Amino acid sequence: MATPRIIGRAAPACLSCLRRVTLQTTSTTTGTAIGAMQARGKATKAELEDLQGIPVRLLEDIVGFGRKDTIMRVKPGRMRNYWFPRGRAEYMTKQRFREMGLTEAAIGVRDRTFGAPRSVLDAMETRDVEAAFIEGEAAAARKRKEALTLPPEQVHELLANLLPPVLTFERKPIAVPTPTATETAAPADEVMRRSPLIASNAVVSGEEGDEVSSATPTVTVPKPPSGPIAIFGSVSTVDILGRIAEILAADTANGGRAALDQGAVTIVGLEEGEDRIKRIGVFEVEIVAGKGLEPIIRRVEVVPEALPEI
User: Fold this and answer.
1) Which domains does the chain have, with CATH numbers?
2) Fewer beta carbons below 10 Å: N end or C end of the chain?
3) For residue range 166-183, what is the model confidence (pLDDT) as tens digits?
4) Rounded to the nearest 5 degrees, what angle is found at the Cα of 45, between the Cα atoms of 42 and 49?
């Protein structure tokens, strides 16, 4: 039996499509039931993306795409910004197809498993390739971090030896306190001056019969608020961790290898609902370098920001 010809369009590339077209042609010519045709499942989003884009030819092996000389479709931005400037692939124009003696039927599909580690290939059975890639990268990052960071016991020793008793932070207060002061008015002249136009025997108010008050007027400045003084901004655990990192940097050998996350610092004495310092004062903080280790107790003092000199 002769192979059926497909007229008006390019031949399908995958085996499932070839079987479907073959069965369809056979059923038309020999009367085979249409139910014998093989139908493909719904294409995934990744498969649809692999069929879009511009045709290119790989000039080297690229992990997750394919071997050298593979022709496939990729997004124009990937080709324009990454592959073509680095000489990893070339554009497959109509002229280039003719020069190579090929047609667009030679365009293949991206091989997402090419060059992937064994864990990714095993994940193909559960259709979880992306999750396997992410997990592999996360595991590699954890191994690199463990190789570069110090054990919690050494971090605890560094903190105990290098951290000062008090960590000081300057913040601009919202209400700046002013000292209480009493201003006294200048006393009146002992001798009242007389105008030369007034007769010498004329009585001037204040000289006779009138009593001049001896009380001295005073002006009192209001007292500053007695409650806590709020500040612009705040002092959070991130700020405290940043200050700790600056102090540990003095140890050039091991200071940069001490790893502390945000949960390692706890501010003691905050009001309910607060997670950071928002007022002037002295607060206690606990720093835990690792599970099972005793917390290191230090104080955080928030002071008013010094005014710039004029």
Assistant:
1) 45-106 (3.40.5.10), 118-148 (no CATH), 152-173+227-304 (3.10.430.100)
2) C
3) 999 999 998 655 555 555
4) 120
